[in-house]
Amino acid sequence: MRHILSVTVENEPGVLSRVAGLFSGRGFNIESLNVGPTLDPGVSHMTITTEGDELIIEQIIKQLRKLVMVIKVVDLTTLKAVQREMVLIKVSAEDSKRAEILRIVDIFRCKVVDVSVDELTIEITGDQEKISALISLLTRFGIKETARSGTVSLRRAMQLSS
Amino acid sequence: MEMTGAQILLECLKREGVEVVFGFPGGAVIDIYHELPNSPIKHILVRHEQGAIHAADGYARASGSVGVCLVTSGPGATNTVTGIATAYMDSIPVVILTGQVPTKLIGNDAFQEVDIVGITRPCTKHNYLVKDVRDLAHVVRQAFYLARSGRPGPVLVDLPKDVMQAKTAFKYPEDVSMRSYNPTYKPHIGQVRKVAQLIKKAERPLIYSGGGVISSKGHEELTWLARKLSIPVTSTLMGLGAFPGDDPLWLGMLGMHGTYTANMAVSNADLVLAVGARFDDRVTGKVSTFAPKATLVHIDIDPTSIQKNVSVHVPLVSDCKLALAALKKDLEQAAEELDWAAKHKAWIKQVKAWNKEHPLTYKEGTGISPQYVVETIGELTKGKAIITTEVGQNQMWAAQFLKITKPNTFLSSGGLGTMGYGFPAAIGAQMAFPGALVIDIAGDGSIQMNIQELATAVCHNLPVKIVILNNGYLGMVRQWQELFYQKNYCETCMEAQPDFVKLAEAYGAAGFRVTEKKDVAPVLKKAFKLKQTVIVDVRVEREANVYPMIPAGASLTEMLLV
Questions:
Q1: Judging by DSSP bridges, how do beta strands B465-470 and B534-539 pair with one another?
Q2: d(CA B278, CA B312)
Q3: A63: contact with B, CB 8 A cutoff
Q4: Do B178 and A68 touch (CB under 8 A)?
Q5: What is the DSSP code (8-state) at residue A84?
Q6: What angle in degrees, to the nearest 10, is found between the helix axes of B370-381 and B517-529?
Q7: Which residues on chain B are in Cβ contact (under 8 Å) with A15?
Q8: What does the pLDDT profile of chain A (162 residues) look like in tens digits?
Q9: Cβ contacts of residue A27 below 8 Å, gap of 6+?
C-alpha cells in the first residue's frame, strides 16, 4: 500500500542524503521525496511517499526515527490529510486541438503557463487522482514533457471520523 | 582563554575520560599530534589504521567504555571503514577522529581528500564534519554521548586541518540535549507485567540472550532470572559471557553452529524470551520455522530490531538491564513462593536428555584436533583470560568449546564477521587490562589480515598471545566447499604460508610451533607465562569441520552433527 510520511528533520547539511541513503541502503522504495524549510530555520519538512506492506512501513518509520537528525515521523496515511502535487505538463497543441485542450484545462481548473505555436504548458495542482485523470486525458494529444514536484502533505486540523 | 582546535579536542577527550587513543599520524592531523605530548592521553601507534579502529573496538568491548581512534584524512580515514562497520554491526561505542583537508579545499579533490562523512554514513550511528572551531567542543561532547547512550555504536568526527589550527575560547558544554535523540531506557510497566505473567504460565520457557545484555551490564539480572526461575539459557555469539558458561542451565550458543540442545530447545519451547538479541539469520535459520511453538517476547533498546526479521508477540522497548530488573521486581515474590525447579522439571529433564543424546563433541583423528586446542586453552585459563577471536572455524570452535563465564571477556566480530579483527582487538583489550591474560584464537588465514600489528604489540610490550589453529586452509569456506560444493576447494588452500615462528621472532616476539598433541598443553602453558607477545603456531588437522552445522536457510532442527 502507498503511504505518505511526514518527516520533520534538523535543517543540517547531509540530512537529505541520510534519509535517501536509508531507503536505498535498506532496499526500501521511494516514490517521491519532497523537502523544504519550515518557518523555523533550524527545521526542515519532508514528505515521503513510499510503498510496502505493513511490516516494511513499520520498519521504514522506525528506521527514520532512529536517524539522529530526525525529530518526528508521522504516517499521514492513517490520518485525514491534505495532499497536493504540482505538475507542469508540456503538451502538443496544433490549432485543431487547441480548443479542446483549453476546455479540459478549464474543467480541471488548471492554468496555461506557457504557449507556443504548437505547444501548451499546463500547470496543475491537486491530489494524485486529479493529476492522473488530467494526464490520461492529455495523453492522446501527445505529452512532450512533465515535471513533478512530488507529493506534499499536511494533516487536517480537524480529524473527523468518517 | 583562547585555545586551538587541536588543544580543544584533546581537552575534550580528557574530560570524556579517555585514557588511550589508537592512531596513526598524517598531514591533516599533525596539529593534533603536535599537542599530544602536552596531554595526559596515551597514544598507541598502530601499523595500519584498520588496526587502530579494531584496537579501539576491542578496548571498548573489554572495558565497557568508549574506544577512540585517531587517523589522518583520505587513505587514513578509508582504512578505518571495515572496523567502523564491524563496530556498527555489533553496537560497540567507538569515536573515530579523522583528519580532513582544510575547509577551503573541501570538494576540490585535494591531496588526501575523501568524503569520509559520506562514505561512513551507512555504517556509523552518526557522523559530523566540524566546519567551525566554535562548534568543536559541542560536537565532540555529542559524539561521545551518542556513542555510549541508547544502542551504542561508532560515531565519526571529521576534523579539517584549519579547524584544528583556528583559535577560540574553550567552553566545555556540561549538558548534552538533542531534541531529535531520546532513546527509551525505561520499560513500559504494563508490558513488563505481561511478560511476567507469560513467564509464570510457561511450561517450557527459554532465554535467548544477546550482546545487548552485555552492553547494558544486565548480566546479573539475567542470571538471577534464569537461576531463580529455573529457565535454561542460550545465547548468540555476541551474548557469550552474560550467563555463566559453566552453569547447569547453560545450553550453549544457538543457531548455525549452535548446540543440538540449544537449537532443539528453541524449537520446542513454549516461551522464548529474547533479550538484547536481534534474530540474525545466523541464529534463526529458516525464519518461518523459528521457535514454532513459542510465544516470543523481545526486549531491545532499539525499536528497529523489533519485528525486523521475526514477528514477535510481546515487544518491550527498553534498556535490557532495566527491563530485566523490572521483571525481577515483578517476579521476586513469585520466585520465593513457588518451587520453580519442580515446575520446570520435565522441561529441564528434556533439555538434559538432548544434551546427552548429542553433546558438543568432536572426532579425534590422528593429528591435533583444533577443538582440543581450544579446550586446553579453556582448562589452562579457567575463565580468567580475555579471549578474542578471528573469524571462521577458529571463532566457532572458540565459541563452542570455551566456557565463557564473565561478560566482556569474549571479543569477536559477530555481525560483520571481520577477518583480521581478533589480534588488534586483543591489543585494545590488553591496553584496557594490562595485567590480564589476553589470547587471540586465530586461523592461519585471518591472522595474516592484520599481522603487521605484531610491531605495535611488541613496541608497547603488550603480552598478547596469538594461538593459530593452523590448518593451511581458509577453513570455513573449505568446509562449505566440502559439504555443499562437491569438494571444489577453489582458492581456499593457503599455499606459501609464512613461517609464523620466524615471523614472530622477526618482529621481536616469541614464537612456538606445536605439531604433536602431547605438546599442546605444555607449550601453551609456557607461552601464557611469558611476559611478551607470543605466537603459538599449532598445526591442527587440516580437514576438521565445525559441527553441529545448519546449512544456510534450513531450519534449526535440520542439523548436521559430528
A1: parallel
A2: 11
A3: yes
A4: yes
A5: E
A6: 40
A7: none
A8: 899 999 999 999 899 999 999 999 999 999 999 999 999 999 999 999 999 999 999 999 999 999 999 999 999 998 999 999 999 999 999 999 999 999 999 999 999 999 999 999 999 999 999 999 999 999 999 999 999 999 999 999 988 876
A9: none
Q: Quickly tell me which residue has 511453538 as its cell.
A: B293
Q: Which three cell numbers stand for residue A159?
A: 480529524
SS3 B461: coil
- Using the beta-carbon criterion (under 8 Å), do B179 and A65 form an inter-chain contact? no
Q: Is B161 in the active site?
A: yes
Distance CA B439, CA A133 (A): 70
| CA B49 – CA B29 distance, rounded (Å) | 14
B142 HSE (CA, 13 A, CB side): 21
| Rounded Cα–Cα distance for residues B129 and A113 (Å) | 43
Which backbone phi and psi does B406 adopt, to 5 degrees?
-130, 145
Nearest CA in chain A to B312: A55
Q: How would you write B337-348 as a 3-class SS string?
A: HCCHHHHCHHHH
Chain A positions touching B311 (Cβ under 8 A) are 55
| B117 neighbourhood in chain A, CB within 8 Å | 14
A68 vs B: CB within 8 A: yes
Name the residue among B378, B420, B391 with its Cα closest to residue B524. B378
* B117 and chain A in contact, CB less than 8 A: yes
Q: Residue B111 catalytic?
A: yes
ipTM of the complex: 0.91
Tell me the sheet residues that pair with A48: A5, A33
Match 585517531 to its residue by C-alpha cell.
B70
Q: What single string gives the DSSP state of each residue in B204-234?
A: SEEEEE-HHHHHTT-HHHHHHHHHHHT--EE
B186 is annotated as an active-site residue: no
Amino acid at B309: N
What is the grid cell recorded at B320? 535490557
**Partner-chain contact A69 B303, CB within 8 Å:** no
User: A143 to chain B nearest CA, in Å?
Assistant: 38
**Separation between Cα atoms, residue B9 and residue B97, nearest integer Å:** 10
